[in-house]
Amino acid sequence: MSIEVVEIGKRFGDFVALDDVSVSIPTGQLTALLGPSGGGKSTLLRIIAGLESADSGRVEIEGVDATRLPPQKRNVGFVFQHYAAFKHLSVRRNVAFGLEIRKRPKAEIRAKVDELLALVHLEQFADRLPSQLSGGQRQRMALARALAVEPTVLLLDEPFGALDAKVRKELRDWLRRLHDEVHVTTVFVTHDQEEALEVSDKIVVINEGRVEQIGTPDELYDKPANDFVMRFLGPVTQVGDHLVRPHDVQIDLDPAAPADATGVVSRISRIGFEIRVDVTVSDAEVVTVTITRNDLLALGLETGTRVGLRIAPVGTATLLDSKASYA
After folding, report:
1. Which of 196, 228, 260 is the last residue of a domain?
2. Same domain, 205 and 262
3. Strand locations in the chain, DSSP E?
4. Which strand (E) or helix (H) includes residue 44?
5. Same structural domain for residues 12 and 129?
6. pLDDT digits over 69-127, tens only?
7. Which domain holds residue 144?
């Protein structure tokens, strides 16, 4: 159930969608393809599924060269952002569809559909039409339908992109739990950094048709390979020549203490449980620092306060030299 993508290239006219992309996805792993819109992640997913053909390179699924196999021969389940439900069929019939066209025995279909509806918590909605479900319920139905044929690989293209933030959060928690139960090798496309960091075992960052970095969520967040990955996977601010996470900058009121920069508090904003402090260190440079409410009260900060800024020690802070060149 492993996937090997080897030196895949794909062009649409003069546009290079994928440029010599290689990715290895182990059996049973939940992998996110993360990147900005137009970066190539959905194209790569469609090539793995067989819905697009590559101009060069190969795709192996379970050690078998699947590069020229049609989608139906690859044993993959595919879930799109828009559910593509059969509107005139009940939830039960939608989930059963793939099994029915494979001519499975009726008793087997009934048992499998019951099992899947329970797995995705839709058993009480089995006889409803898709139009009678919420967006999140329809997406769970789509996932159940994809799992019904027991695919070796599950591919999800922006599966929660059409949903509101609260439902997205609920569904990504549910997807992680579902994956831990069924252990099917899963690849999902997203441009949502928080979604990728929270759900996946490994993240492949794709930008302008190239792989920028592959690693675990911790590796990518704490040890980004370059400026793009650091900026894309979380907030950054600049202190001198260094890019750093705002929560890795410390504020000091002692004018005699060593500092990486000094300045004046120009704005204080509360963003939920965080306090965002903007410190103007020069006419052209503002450093953003993230602290807790308790830290704000302890420091007694207010607009106009002069402060020193110190980057947390190397090893505890995510730090990049903004003037460095990354190949």
Report:
1. 228
2. no
3. 3-12, 15-25, 30-34, 56-61, 64-65, 76-79, 153-157, 185-190, 202-207, 210-215, 237-239, 242-244, 249-252, 261-271, 274-282, 285-292, 306-311, 319-321
4. helix 41-49
5. yes
6. 998 888 888 887 665 678 899 999 999 988 888 888 999 999 989 988 988 888 999 99
7. 3-228
